[in-house]
Design brief:
Blueprint (H helix, E strand, L loop, with lengths): L1 H17 L5 E3 L9 E2 L5 H9 L14 E11 L5 E8 L5 E9 L5 E11 L5 E10 L2 E12 L5 E10 L2 E12 L5 E10 L2 E12 L5 E9 L4 E11 L6 E9 L4 E11 L5 E9 L4 E12 L2 E10 L4 E3 L2 E6 L5 E6 L1 E10 L12 E2 L10 E8 L3 E9 L4 E10 L2 E8 L6 E9 L2 E9 L2
Parallel strand pairs: 1-22
Antiparallel strand pairs: 1-2, 3-4, 3-23, 4-5, 5-6, 6-7, 7-8, 8-9, 9-10, 10-11, 11-12, 12-13, 13-14, 14-15, 15-16, 16-17, 17-18, 18-19, 19-20, 19-23, 21-22, 24-25, 25-28, 26-27, 26-29, 29-30
Length: about 450
């Protein structure tokens, strides 16, 4: 079983790097095998993994006074296997660890696996370490290292395995962006014969509204890049939410239909249903259906069904958990339920001195510029950053030492879509977060 775990993790962590930290864990009957990962890495499966990562933004307002952090997650397969994940956070509400448990044949939770997260002073994730519970102790398996540019954009992620007391390279991805901050290329390389060798390349193409229009994937054949797949995205003209996406595989002389993802969104832009269809050569036919529930934009539960040729029936399939707190994992299972901690934004730092403050932006809602005002009571190193609803950093407005005083900064959102954004001020021990709405 030890060898099986490592060999499967090698496979999935390569996919993890390629898909930017998306885990794919198999939840099956634990009496057969306590831990396994998806190993049928074939074209349609790869396309599914890429498409299920798509998320939309909300134009609706959420209570300013609170936000949610995942406390625990439980998944259950159709054969009865159960997994549980427990989460821990630091004082800045950044995830620092999650631990995975499986339910054994006696109904007891058994510890299995954990991941630890580390951040720089800009709250960028710079390191993830993965541990396996083996012989009643934690055993290091691998790590992922991250590097960023001066704009805090991820430019390099590297997977390393821990073997015989040292870390060894396995794979890496290099990212490039356009002037609007959109990722335009992702190059994945493998460590072979003590050097980096090309493996695959992704090209992202965007509309003038900065929405992804298409995605082209190519593989390296040893001499040149060869087409592998192409995915096209289609949006609702009024809401701008994603309606559907079509993935095609390269047959040698043309792209041929392979997979279609149909989306039903709620009024906030959350994908409450995903219907996957497969091209049979003449028409699209049902394959997988997922039904989701949300608390605002926070994923709460999902149930999956498979098409048996006549009817829908419960089945195990990859379900992606992609939450604003930064946690992302795909579990092959039938159902997932998530339980949250409610964090009161205004009371996270009750000892905040009165001479430090962050004011509400004006105007709000705004289009495309707004003014952010803050005050600090003593000389401090100050950061003022803007985040989207998924917790991704959008802009750094201030990042320097400032003397005591009152300040005003303009934020320009010309290249951003309508939606809810958060801005956070950090000055010494003072931290405050407020919300603003971009309405175009």
């Amino acid at each position: 079983m030890r060898a099986l775990k490592i060999s499967l993790l090698v496979f999935i962590l390569t996919i993890t790097l390629f898909a930017q930290n998306e885990y794919l864990i198999h939840n099956e009957n634990i009496s057969l095998t306590p831990f396994s990962l998806q190993t049928n890495y074939e074209p349609t499966q790869w396309l599914r993994q890429k498409l299920t990562k798509i998320s939309n933004y909300s134009n609706e307002e959420q209570a300013v006074s609170e936000y949610y952090l995942i406390d625990s997650l439980i998944s259950e397969s159709v054969t009865g296997g159960k997994l549980k994940f427990l989460f821990e956070y630091n004082i800045d509400d950044k995830i620092v660890e999650w631990t995975k448990f499986f339910n054994d044949i006696n109904g007891n939770w058994q510890i299995d696996f954990k991941e630890e997260y580390f951040y720089d002073t800009h709250y960028n994730l710079i390191r993830e370490i993965y541990f396996d519970w083996y012989n009643a102790e934690w055993d290091s398996l691998n790590q992922i290292l991250y590097e960023y540019n001066l704009d805090d954009k991820l430019i390099l992620s590297t997977i390393q395995w821990y073997v015989t007391g040292s870390w060894g390279n396995d794979a890496r991805s290099t990212y490039k962006y356009d002037q609007a901050g959109n990722e335009i290329t992702s190059l994945t390389e493998l460590w072979q014969n003590n050097q980096w060798t090309n493996s695959s390349m992704l090209y992202n193409y965007y509309s003038t509204e900065n929405r992804r229009d298409s995605l082209l994937s190519q593989n390296w054949d040893g001499n040149k890049w060869q087409n592998y797949s192409r995915t096209s995205f289609y949006y609702d003209s009024l809401t701008t939410f994603l309606n559907y996406a079509i993935a095609q595989l390269w047959t040698g002389n043309q792209f041929q239909n392979s997979f279609k993802l149909n989306i039903i969104n709620d009024e906030l832009g959350n994908q409450i249903q995903q219907l996957e269809e497969i091209w049979n050569g003449n028409a699209w036919v049902n394959d997988i259906k997922r039904v989701y529930t949300y608390i605002w934009n926070y994923f709460e539960s999902c149930n999956a069904e498979l098409w048996n040729g006549t009817n829908w029936e419960p089945g195990d399939t990859p379900i992606l958990v992609d939450n604003p707190d930064g946690f992302k994992i795909a579990i092959i299972t039938h159902s997932i339920s998530i339980y949250y901690i409610i964090v009161n934004v205004e009371s996270t730092n009750p000892n905040t001195p009165s001479d430090f403050s962050l004011l509400q932006n004006y105007p709000n809602p705004f289009n495309p510029t707004t003014s952010l005002q803050y005050a600090i009571g003593s000389r401090q190193f100050v950061t003022l950053k803007v985040y989207d609803l998924l917790g991704r950093e959008i802009a750094t407005l201030v990042n320097e030492e400032k003397p005591a005083g009152e300040y005003e900064v303009e934020f320009n959102a010309t290249n951003l879509p309508s939606g809810i954004y958060f801005y956070q001020l950090n000055a010494g021990e003072f931290t405050e977060v407020k919300k603003m709405i971009l309405l175009k």
